[in-house]
Amino acid sequence: MRETLAKNVVLNIKQLQQFRTIKIQIDFLRPIDKKESTKRRLLANVMSNSSAKYPSFKAINDREMELYGAEINAYTRSLLNFNDLGFSVEFADPSFLTGNTKQLENNLELLNDIIFHPNLKSADEFDEMAFTTEKRNMLSNLEAVDDNQDLVSMLELAKLVHLNDQNRQLPIFGDKEELKSLTNSELVDYYHQAIDNDFVMINVVGNVDPEKFSKLMRDKFTGLVESKNRRDLQVQFEDFTDLIKMPATKTDQKTVNQSHLALAFVSDKLEKGSSHLAPQAMNLIFGGDDQSQLFLQVRERNSLAYSVSSTYQPTNHLLTVQAGLDGKDMAKAIALIKRQLEFIQNGEFTDSQIEHAKKVLHTRREVASDTIQHYIMRSMWETVYPEAVLAEDKYQNELAKVSRNDIIRVANRLHIIAQYQMMGE
Amino acid sequence: MAEKLQKFVQTLPNGFRVTAVPLPGYKQTYSVAMANFGSVDTNLGSGKYLPAGIAHFIEHKLFAKPGYDVSEKFAEYGANANAYTSYTKTAYLYQTLENPYDNLKVLLDLIEHPYFTEDNVASERGIINQEIQMYLDMPEWVLEERILEQLYPGDPIAKDIAGSTDSLQSINKDNLLATYKNSYRPQNMDLVVVGNIDFDKILKVVDDSPFDNNQTAPIVKHNEATKIGPGGQSSMNISQSRAAFGIRVDTKLSGYELVKYQYILNMILETLIGESSENYQAMTQKNLIDDSFSYNVVAENDYCFIIVSGSTNDPKAFQDYLRNCLLNNNLEEILTPERFERIRRDAIGAYLFAQNSPDAIANQIAELQFYDVDYLELIQLLNSITLDDVFTASKEIFMDKNFTHYNLIADGK
């Protein structure tokens, strides 16, 4: 069931009895702006760890435990060109508990407290303890990023890929220097801007009665139902033309045991008549699973890396490769990775590789539907960018249509746009 | 009340235990074959040890068969396969949408037919060595290994699960095969299948694939716990220091009682230093911890310990605070019946959350069966714990002689 609660406030309810839990997720979206990313992440942390009614981390945690281990989660992430500030609560389906019939109402109220009744000291400031604790925690988390070499490698690649988009130069989870100078009153000011004006999506999955839930939302979430000025969403895609002409490269030396390699390619638009799933099939043959060329040739046959894989992002047509390897093998590994791409460009792959890729695409799609998050993400895409969602019959048609020539064409229309190397010393 | 899970179990004459859990509404089938054998099982007695990392090496190399790799077979039948090694278990698993019984045959082929050659062992060394290098760059991983070296000095549990660059050189096709034959016995393994499946068909597939490895009991040498270490620290090229406070709990409990004890220890730790505790608040306010702070209770045969760890600006103050708050704890005052009920509810919720996931169900069933615990009776186990059980346990564990620590100091701090 889908309904609009107010202008740019959308409610999606998926009633399912498959799961033992129920999840309610509320996402606030606006275009990514590098001046706002740090604020949004700190806001998520401050809001989710206390509220006016539960004014400490202990109080809110006690309440979650009382509600049979309810899990509150708050985050920011990038979704297309949007910064998604999200809050969710997941809790045990009351039909699996004895004598508890208020699980839904109580958890919805907790989510409402967190979003609309924050822990304020005054109209202009959050509770001092809540603000300083979360600011310190976030600073600590940002410092710890440097200790995660896989993540560092991917962030460096992202900086190169988004060389021409200043707003994406900053990671979605913020920046240490901006955080240090962020004040309590600035954050409260931003809280009102975001919560009052962002586009809102509410997604509910689990054993809930849609009509009853809709009424509960309207009664409890007046802050959403009565909103009038929420912004529209306009999907925009990045242009990588400059990087195709001149790929961006960077090499760092670091005191680490394992070296890292990250590559990014962009694919041209599909030729008319090609299957929409050809790039995903091509990625699977290239580096998408343990039967792929990268896994079998780089890891298994030549023992050059423990981890080596590729990922394709359909919305921006980016294909990325990640590998963890011995620094002395870097040149050899790069040559071997390029050779695997040529292997596909030349059409040297077998028919059984094509069939395997199709089978994996089908299986992944079906298996994903065994999770609550699948239904939430599907609803989100249907709301924000419906073109990205293929209906089941259309998906099966496109899958059946994937041909050898489609895959060869995709591989030949890939352009390297960025390369990052972290050399261990 | 909604319908509860159902479970079918049969132990075959050779001792191989087979379990199936139908999961209506789910599209996938998930299967796991688990050996009660992990990285700590290297003690041959008389002071002789297998090379560190041999269990993990077997896990990697069992996929190799004459002329093919088992992953290819799984792929042919549409399954995604994987494996993992822990301190005490090794598991092989697949997830599939179709052909659950053909994939089960492949899983049985995987665990029943080793094929180790000089060449395939040599090529695997390079891959595993890269895996070891990867973990050496992860401070949390390094810290866990170092605190275990303090908790159990010189013991196999203090070695990296994957071994070391040196120990890999001592692993060869002969000791791999001998170790496989000793440990991969039907009565030392569990098979659990979760999904839209028929138990009789599963039994038929298992019957048709005789598991004829040595059917006597495996040779198990218990590791003798040595004196706990005094603590230590070292520096690492990281941006933030990490600290670990360790508590060793030498208990003679096993099986069902050991699993119950693990729940009791978790309740104690949750009350004293969990996110809802006064101590967590105080440590946060003193700027000693951030939200990476956590504790982990491990209760296995021969090993029972607690590791409390996290990033910190002041490792010494972190250790001092924990030592004092645990030694001088006021558990009997603060663990009121109301709070006890809250913790119980939290555990019930966690049990239901896990039931959303076929892999969590399968892995927990397989593991718990080695401790004679029925996964479907976990709530009853939980309800059987009394406040007195918790208070009694707390008096036995918080003593200076059980404590140790390790700090990883960020370079330049």
Automatic annotation (TrEMBL), chain A:
Coiled-coil annotated residue ranges, if any: none
One MF term in the entry's GO annotations: metal ion binding
UniProt domain Peptidase M16 C-terminal: residue ranges: 181-361
Entry-linked Gene3D superfamilies: Metalloenzyme, LuxS/M16 peptidase-like
PANTHER family in UniProt: INACTIVE METALLOPROTEASE YMFF-RELATED (PTHR11851:SF186), METALLOPROTEASE (PTHR11851)
Pfam families: Peptidase_M16_C (PF05193)
Top-level taxon of the source organism: Bacteria
Protein known as: Zn-dependent peptidase
InterPro entries with a match to the protein in the record: Metalloenz_LuxS/M16, MPP/UQCRC_Complex, Peptidase_M16_C
UniProtKB/TrEMBL annotation, chain B:
Pfam families named among the record's database cross-references: Peptidase_M16, Peptidase_M16_C
Molecular function as annotated in GO: metal ion binding
NCBIfam families: YfmH_fam
Matches recorded under InterPro entries: Metalloenz_LuxS/M16 (IPR011249), MPP/UQCRC_Complex (IPR050361), Pept_M16_N (IPR011765), Peptidase_M16_C (IPR007863)
Name of the featured protein: YmfH
Source species of the chain: Companilactobacillus versmoldensis DSM 14857 = KCTC 3814
PANTHER family per UniProt: METALLOPROTEASE, ZINC-DEPENDENT PROTEASE
Top-level taxon of the source organism: Bacteria
Peptidase M16 N-terminal domain mapped to chain residues: 52-163
Entries under Gene3D superfamilies matching the protein: Metalloenzyme, LuxS/M16 peptidase-like
Domain Peptidase M16 C-terminal stretches: 170-344
